[in-house]
Amino acid sequence: MRRTVAVAVAVLTLAGAGCSAGSGPTEAEKQYAAAKPEKPRTGSDFERTCADGLGFPGLTAYEKKAGRVHPMAVVKKTDDSWYVDSPSGSDFPATWMVDTIAGTDRTELVVCVEQTGAKPTSRICDMEDRESGGKYKMTMYDVDYRIRVLDAQSGKSVFEKKGTRSEKECPVVTFRRATEDKSKYYPSIDSKTIRPIIKPYVAP
Question: Which domain of life is it from (predicted)?
Answer without folding.
Answer: Bacteria
